[in-house]
Amino acid sequence: MFTGIVQGIATIEEVTAEPGLSTFVVRFPADRVDGVSIGASVAINGTCLTVTRQQGSSLCFDAMQETLRLTTLGGLKAGDVVNFERAARIGDEIGGHLLSGHVHTTAEIVEILRPENNVTLWFAVPDEWTRYIFPKGYIAVNGASLTIGEVRGNRFNVHLIPETLRATTFGAAHEGQRVNIEIDSQTQTIVDTLARMGYDRPAPTV
Known about the structure:
By secondary structure, the chain is mainly beta. The chain has 3 helices and 12 strands. The strands form 2 sheets. It has a 6-stranded antiparallel β-barrel. A 6-stranded antiparallel barrel has the order 7-8-11-10-9-12. GO terms for molecular function: riboflavin synthase activity.
């Protein structure tokens, strides 16, 4: 379980691709791997991965074919930077919202606006996931718990303050970039329950 509060930026050192499996060597800030153990869970761009090996401040992870298919991890290469969060522990402050680290889909950054002192990112998601996206609702983008701003058809935006841009990879975001999306589990449960009762949300209009 994760909180959606990104703990820092890590760097992909090496990617080894084999049929149906990719192994990632990821370098973390040295103080962020204290006490880590083999088998621990770490969210990489919002995707829960298991530590398989440690090499100093670098951790190794395996990603299976299904993970590579559903997320953006398959496109990572050496030198890329990623958001990371180590698994939450009982008693930790929940500053964002509870996440499982199981990515539902990916989205594309379609527009970046830069008003004074903040940045607004617009995303386009596959139509089937728009039923769970509401203004002021929660969503996780590359592992960061964010509040949805506006929703227009299959597009939504988020507003990022300077601290979020500093602490995450969003400061280097660009149009056309794909990101991992985890829908808020409570919102998904409510929407699906209402749909089973016949109160389905209409399809989005552009």
